[in-house]
Amino acid sequence: MTIRARRWAAFLVFSGVLSSRLARAVSETLVPGAEVTSSIGIDRLKTQDGTVSGILLNRSGRTVRDVRLLIRQVWLWKNERHPGDDSPGRVDFYTVPNEIPAGGSVPFQYQPSPPLPRRSDGRFKTEVEVVGFTESGA
Predict the structure, then answer these.
(1) Which CATH number fits the domain 31-136, given the four candidates 1.10.287, 3.40.1130, 2.60.40, 3.30.450?
(2) pTM of the complete model beyond 0.90
């Protein structure tokens, strides 16, 4: 095989690899906020000692992955008229590591680190919201 033929063969292999990677990148979409809540639902949400669990429902017609959750641990004071100075409330993001097929579901569990403090001057109210995901497929 001549040098010119080897270069041409190497170019064709490189072009094939590049085009397959481009095709995959084109078939993946980061979904904007307005579509998130209509595409991904949360069912059977439970919280216990700061641990959050539930089931994610994929209502879209494509496989989704990298579902990103916004988890708010809202602190409610026992005495809202005289709240303390150090609210332990916080916000965390969690990316669910599983792919969810079209029309499918997957369980998730999130445990905050460090754990939520145990206090007697109020309680936590947990709110969970899907804020993004990646959609893939044809």
Answers:
(1) 2.60.40
(2) no
